[in-house]
Specification:
Rossmann fold; 24% helix; alpha+beta; eight-stranded antiparallel β-sheet; 2 domains; 8 helices; Elongation Factor Tu (Ef-tu), domain 3
Length: 292
């Protein structure tokens, strides 16, 4: 009888404070890897609310993972736990960490460049190295190639469920993170020089790292049109004068335009077309913008 009462009390006990758990990987959805991670998380706390950021990151593309975290994290409530697993160095000596941002979000990830824009845009308050002796999934000791299931989502689920604090993740880490090797945007005579950091799929819009603040300082945003040159090494991919517009509909269908994207960075698009495909633009290409 007493056991029955205790069981009923456990079922009706108040739910401890929890946060959302958001998963990002390059695993795709063709096999059971993502489902395995979710199963582990629900085994830790069946009442967790799990969301998908994306699982369509191109394989091994750390830059894309970093960009999608930057695009997404600021819009989630404080305390949300993000698990980002794009980990070409899985099983090696690369650090497995949890970063607490100054905005109050947690990112559980390998320290391989994924945190670059998280640090730049949100700031990092603290970093802890994940202690596998405390947090490795029981029975996974012989597995060395699936830390998403065996380590990262375990820590993420425990943090989101309120079962552990950041201090219980592991020892404090050097706050100097591994960074992506991408040149910063800068001012030039009469404009700015930027780098393509991503393609807005499936539309093919070209996103750069030139912020609206930088554009303002170069007096680019006040122009009705801008002169744009895109290069890859010695090869010129695009040269032209395009309208600097607020919306895609400001130009005729299929015509190019410059605009501020949802991150308030300089971007290029074709109205109802694919700029990146038409001009063979890819991340890493250099974009020069001059005011008219």
């Amino acid at each position: 009888m007493f056991r029955t009462i205790a069981f009923l009390l456990a079922l009706t006990a108040p739910l401890r404070a929890q946060s959302a758990l958001v998963l990002q990987t390059d695993f795709g959805l063709a096999d059971g890897s993502v489902a395995a991670m979710k199963g582990v998380a629900l085994g830790i706390e069946p009442r967790l609310v799990i969301h998908d950021l994306t699982h369509q990151i191109p394989p091994y593309d750390i830059r894309e993972a970093a960009l999608r975290l930057r695009q997404t994290i600021p819009w989630w409530p404080k305390g949300t736990v993000f698990v980002s697993v794009v980990d070409p160095g899985v099983g090696t000596e690369r650090r497995a960490v949890v970063a607490l941002t100054r905005s109050g979000h947690y990112v559980v990830t390998p320290d391989n460049g994924t945190l670059t824009w998280v640090a730049d845009i949100l700031g990092i308050e603290a970093i802890r190295i994940i202690d596998p002796a405390r947090h490795r999934l029981p029975g996974s000791d012989l597995s060395h190639t699936f830390h998403g299931r065996d380590l990262f989502v375990v820590v993420g689920a425990r943090l989101a469920a309120g079962q552990i604090t950041l201090n219980e993740v592991g020892p404090p880490a050097d706050p100097v993170i591994v960074r992506l090797n991408l040149p910063a945007a800068s001012r030039t005579a009469g404009g700015v020089r930027a780098t393509v950091i991503g393609i807005d799929k499936p539309f093919g819009n070209v996103w750069t790292n030139a912020s609206s603040t930088l554009l303002d300082s170069a007096q680019v945003t006040g122009s009705d049109s801008v002169q744009v040159t895109i290069r890859r090494g010695a090869r010129t991919l695009f040269v032209g004068t395009v309208p600097f517009a607020a919306t895609f509909g400001a130009v005729a269908r299929g015509k190019p335009l410059a605009y501020l994207n949802s991150l308030l960075d300089f971007a290029l698009a074709l109205n109802q077309g694919d700029f990146a495909t038409r001009y063979a633009v890819a991340p890493g290409d250099v974009v020069e913008v001059h005011r008219r």
